[in-house]
């Protein structure tokens, strides 16, 4: 549904979890191939290049693999970028392990934003009638068209329908 895409892509201030580029697609934290579900809690905003690079890996496997690629010296040893010293694979893993834990904290924080009940109720209420993305009314068009409304909703704390009624009634009275 478009509301789900908008809810995910605008989380994290609309940027990719991994590289901070504008988010363009939804990533399954746990890929389908590993039994991941197509549910909001398993979806995060990322850009297309990061989605292609991550492929069907979970974030832990991807992060460790990327880290090894960056620190591999080419002579069979690994380089610690902070000290420029060769490290054993075990030492590198321990460095990477701490970074992975930080990355998992970020993922969990972003998942909490994506599935926040107040936020998801607001997105559902505002955009559910637009249905599924199509060639005529796809996610990029919806995102561009509703960007200002989403920013206002976020600034107002994603108000509930009950909280919006006084403002709606006020606008109706002014229009008379």
Textual characterization of the structure:
The chain is mainly α and 176 residues long. It has seven helices and four strands, in the order αββααββαααα. It has helices at 2-9, 48-54, 59-71, 89-115, 117-127, 139-155, 161-174, and strands spanning 25-28, 43-46, 78-80, 85-87. It has a two-stranded antiparallel sheet. A two-stranded antiparallel sheet has the order 3-4. Strand 3 (78-80) and strand 4 form a beta hairpin. Helix 1 (2-9) crosses helix 5. The radius of gyration is 21 Å and the shape is elongated. The mean pLDDT is 86.
**How many DSSP H or I helices?**
7
Strand content: 5-15%
**Major beta-sheet overview:** 2 strands, antiparallel
* Separation, N- and C-terminal Cα atoms: 36 Å
Number-wise, the strands total 4
What is the H-and-E element order? HEEHHEEHHHH
The gross shape turns out to be elongated
What would the average pLDDT be, to the nearest integer?
Answer: 86
Query: What Rg do the Cα atoms give?
Result: 21 Å
The secondary-structure class comes to mainly alpha
Question: What percent of residues adopt helix (DSSP H or I)?
Answer: 55-70%
Q: What is the strand and helix layout of this fold?
A:
Elements: H1 2-9, E1 25-28, E2 43-46, H2 48-54, H3 59-71, E3 78-80, E4 85-87, H4 89-115, H5 117-127, H6 139-155, H7 161-174
Antiparallel strand pairs: 1-2, 3-4
């Amino acid at each position: 549904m478009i509301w789900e895409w908008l809810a995910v892509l605008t989380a994290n201030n609309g940027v990719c979890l991994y590289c901070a580029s504008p988010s363009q697609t939804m990533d399954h934290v746990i890929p389908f191939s590993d039994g991941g579900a197509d549910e909001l809690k398993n979806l995060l905003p990322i850009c297309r290049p990061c989605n292609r690079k991550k492929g069907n890996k979970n974030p832990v496997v991807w992060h460790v693999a990327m880290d090894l690629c960056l620190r591999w010296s080419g002579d069979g040893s690994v380089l610690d970028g902070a000290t420029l010293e060769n490290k054993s694979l075990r030492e590198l893993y321990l460095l990477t392990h701490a970074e992975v834990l930080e990355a998992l904290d970020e993922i969990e924080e972003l998942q909490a934003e994506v599935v926040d009940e107040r936020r998801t109720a607001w997105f559902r209420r505002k955009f559910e009638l637009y249905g599924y993305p199509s060639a005529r009314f796809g996610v990029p068009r919806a995102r561009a068209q509703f960007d200002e409304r989403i920013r206002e909703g976020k600034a107002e704390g994603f108000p509930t329908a009950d909280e919006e009624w006084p403002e709606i009634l006020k606008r109706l009275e002014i229009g008379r």
